[in-house]
Amino acid sequence: MKKILTVIGIALLSIQSYAQDFHLSQYDAAALNANPGMTGVFKGDYRIHGHFRTQWMAIATKPFTTGLIAFDANQGKWGWGIQAANFRAGTGAYNVISILPSAAIKLPFGEKKFSFFSIGAQAGVFQKSIKISALTFGDQYSPYGGGTFSNSTAEAFGDANQINLDVNLGIMYYYAKPGIRVNPFGGVSMYHVNRPTESFIEDDGNKLPFRYQGIAGARVVLTNKIAIIPKVLFQYQEQASELTFSALGQFYLESYDIFLLGGGTYRNKDAAILEFGVKYGQWTGRFSYDINTSTLNNATNGRGGSELSVTYIFNRPNPNPVPTCPKL
Q1: Structural domain count, the chain
Q2: Which spans in 105-243 are helix H?
Q3: Domain boundaries, position 33
Q4: Do 279 and 229 meet the contact criterion of CB atoms below 8 Å apart?
Q5: Residue 325 included in any domain
Q6: What mean pLDDT is predicted for residues 1-15?
């Protein structure tokens, strides 16, 4: 019995350690994930976004991976969209799948209506599962043949699965006057407003904690070919917090009609992140790499996570000028 309780305790601690949401180094690229208020806030008609991240390959046989795909539409005053995400971690095949439809309304204000508040909401479902049968227990060890884990286990744990509702809210401010040098933006969002239950233990009562997030920055045009987007992000969830400082530069290469992208991010007490990318026509592709700066650096030798994102915006012909939307 003592052994069983110990194993249960270890399993619960492992599950609890994943309680915090996944994070992205290129959080600004995944607009619907960054803030529900960003739904439909872009220059164009439809936007498709794909995102993939992997981390801890240096120390884990099964690294953490995050995949995300999103679609949203700009319908004038209204925006709507949907995001699907998948997060996988560890030998126990801990897996989270979420599907979140979202909608937002853009409210102009000010004398010339170039300032906007965009208020958005997401409501959908997430499914969490863990494959206990993929784990290895001490009683499976056999000293024969050089030492293997070929024995069957006496531990009676079944695979676990749950589905829950999830609700997120967000509001963004942005200044959208075309042709000016500085377009500021900022926003706050709150996730898991309904506090869904996340424990695999029946009647445990463990609720998914709120996550609070704030983003602020500006797009600054330096010349007719160069712009820079400095920004800061802070988020907090239960005992975990994250603070990042970023700057992404854009350089227009006239001879090829493309924008070269490059910059860096510092995630406080965790990682330095290098990033580069290309914007060509309606396509934007970005790649980033996390260099670990935390105490885990001793095990990873600086190797953190790699991340790739691709965005395509579809435009229908429109003779009317469109206000500048925020580029996080």
Answers
A1: 1
A2: none
A3: 2-314
A4: no
A5: no
A6: 38
